[in-house]
């Protein structure tokens, strides 16, 4: 049987890896490194850099492979994502079978933590329907932790809950009833524009935890345009962007 090791590696800073993550990566027989295509090679390079930093001499073999591109022509968003995950699972299964055979420990580096707005576990469950597979998860530092650490803020108000949601849900449904604090992930850009910025504060980070991290904070009405412009420029420079933000109602 294959043991698939899903290792949370933090938000892009090799120093964020836990001791457990380093130990497990060194114990693997094979590390899979996905390539996401033109303009996103630095995502694969970050994984390579982590391997160079933490793997011992003579450590596990690394194998790179190309991920399928998501079909954006289907109007149903969830159907598009489900089909894309099916295609990724097929590619995973093919590469695991070809590179590892019927047994061994195969590691996959997951940004942040596999449990939080990441589809790696869902894809792994699909692979487990195709191959005899045991899934092991090693938790990692999330972008939410990197965001709040970078801005030096707590994620919640005193004794209060907070809600983690997506940019799509904020844009489509607005501010959730009864919520005081939102952490917004997977925003394609500017979902906060649906809010009356006078009544909210925002803490925004792009590339949270990485050397090129960008932070902007303030009253939403004062900094919304700056965030949108900065985000667009950073995406153009890098070919991709990962950002996250916290919004809190003003007292």
Automatic annotation (TrEMBL):
Uppermost EC category: transferase
Pathway per the UniProt entry: Cofactor biosynthesis; adenosylcobalamin biosynthesis
Pfam families: TP_methylase
Residue ranges of every copy of the Tetrapyrrole methylase domain listed in the record: 4-223
SUPFAM superfamilies reported for this sequence: Tetrapyrrole methylase (SSF53790)
Keywords annotated in UniProt: Cobalamin biosynthesis, Methyltransferase, S-adenosyl-L-methionine, Transferase
InterPro entries per the UniProt record, alphabetical: 4pyrrol_Mease, 4pyrrol_Methylase_sf, 4pyrrole_Mease_sub1, 4pyrrole_Mease_sub2, CobF
Catalytic activities: precorrin-5 + S-adenosyl-L-methionine + H2O = precorrin-6A + acetate + S-adenosyl-L-homocysteine + 2 H(+)
EC number: 2.1.1.152
GO MF annotation list: precorrin-6A synthase (deacetylating) activity
GO biological process, one term: cobalamin biosynthetic process
Protein name: Precorrin-6A synthase [deacetylating]
């Amino acid at each position: 049987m294959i043991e698939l090791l899903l290792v949370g590696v933090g938000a892009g800073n090799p120093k964020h890896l836990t001791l457990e993550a380093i130990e497990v990566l060194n114990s693997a027989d094979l590390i899979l490194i996905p390539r996401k295509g033109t303009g996103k090679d630095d995502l694969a390079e970050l994984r390579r850099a982590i391997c160079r930093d933490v793997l011992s001499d003579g450590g596990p073999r690394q194998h790179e492979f190309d991920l399928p591109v998501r079909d954006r022509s289907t109007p149903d968003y969830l159907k598009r994502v489900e089909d894309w995950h099916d295609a990724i699972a097929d590619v995973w299964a093919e590469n695991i079978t070809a590179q590892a055979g019927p047994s061994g420990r195969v590691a996959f580096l997951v940004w942040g933590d596999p449990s939080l707005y990441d589809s790696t576990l869902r894809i792994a469950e699909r692979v487990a329907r195709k191959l005899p597979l045991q899934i092991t998860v090693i938790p990692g530092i999330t972008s939410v932790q990197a965001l709040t650490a970078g801005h030096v803020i707590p994620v919640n108000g005193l004794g209060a809950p907070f809600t983690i949601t997506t940019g799509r849900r904020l844009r489509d449904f607005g501010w959730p009833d009864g919520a005081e604090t939102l952490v917004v992930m997977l925003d394609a850009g500017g979902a906060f524009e649906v809010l009356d910025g006078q009544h909210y504060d925002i803490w925004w980070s792009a590339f949270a935890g990485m050397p090129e991290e960008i932070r902007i904070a303030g009253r939403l009405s004062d900094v919304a345009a700056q965030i949108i412009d900065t985000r667009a420029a950073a995406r153009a420079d890098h070919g991709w962007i990962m950002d996250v933000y916290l919004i809190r109602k003003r007292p």
